[in-house]
């Protein structure tokens, strides 16, 4: 009997290899980030000699000071913040507004609507029809072109609908018996219970909006409306020595260091969102994995 118990508690080879595999995967993901951060804080001589790996060499903050002095960077940063905040709110409202009726049995046409949404997941509209639609709606060269075309994601809609289906129908029926209308029921019962789903959708939508790049190239011609990712491309793809010349300190600045500083500045804000939503995000990722 004791031998059988010890055999049950003896860890298997797979369970022992799991932590090692997770550590290796984490290192593969973290090491490039550490390298970029180290280069952004390193001097031009060390960068040109290729001495920077995971720790800054000839530590300096001149790269960040130079980048943060650029008005174009702050303007692009503000554009990205606006489209991320307001675009996420619009997407959450529109996704929840469509997912809730599609989760109710009394809405008879829900199957046909779900079929149409499913078709959009399989067949994506090409670029030219999308461009013509945005142009005909008068959204070109406006921030609406970066928020409205992708306001509802079909995948997120199905995830949100699955969460609404998991809410007991008795709660909604009891609210209706007490005289609550649909809006009051959604505001007082559905939304408070939907925090995990809302947190999950918020992160997914906000990351997509913050990293919005292709739509800005297609629909925006006014450089004053370029988001941060487009400016990041200009620094990474083009020669950043012009920025160093503008700063008037080309000897103490490296184009490579300036590129890395811009990458870090463009990445940190969206990474700071996750810790505040982590608890709800983990719960939201389990939506539909457990059935009662």
UniProtKB/TrEMBL annotation:
<dbReference type="InterPro" id="IPR000515">
    <property type="entry name" value="MetI-like"/>
</dbReference>
<protein>
    <submittedName>
        <fullName>L-arabinose transport system permease protein AraQ</fullName>
    </submittedName>
</protein>
<feature type="domain" description="ABC transmembrane type-1">
    <location>
        <begin position="77"/>
        <end position="277"/>
    </location>
</feature>
<comment type="similarity">
    <text>Belongs to the binding-protein-dependent transport system permease family.</text>
</comment>
<keyword id="KW-0813">Transport</keyword>
<feature type="transmembrane region" description="Helical">
    <location>
        <begin position="73"/>
        <end position="100"/>
    </location>
</feature>
<feature type="transmembrane region" description="Helical">
    <location>
        <begin position="112"/>
        <end position="132"/>
    </location>
</feature>
<dbReference type="InterPro" id="IPR035906">
    <property type="entry name" value="MetI-like_sf"/>
</dbReference>
<dbReference type="Pfam" id="PF00528">
    <property type="entry name" value="BPD_transp_1"/>
</dbReference>
<keyword id="KW-1133">Transmembrane helix</keyword>
<keyword id="KW-1003">Cell membrane</keyword>
<keyword id="KW-0472">Membrane</keyword>
<feature type="transmembrane region" description="Helical">
    <location>
        <begin position="144"/>
        <end position="164"/>
    </location>
</feature>
<keyword id="KW-0812">Transmembrane</keyword>
<feature type="transmembrane region" description="Helical">
    <location>
        <begin position="185"/>
        <end position="208"/>
    </location>
</feature>
<feature type="transmembrane region" description="Helical">
    <location>
        <begin position="258"/>
        <end position="277"/>
    </location>
</feature>
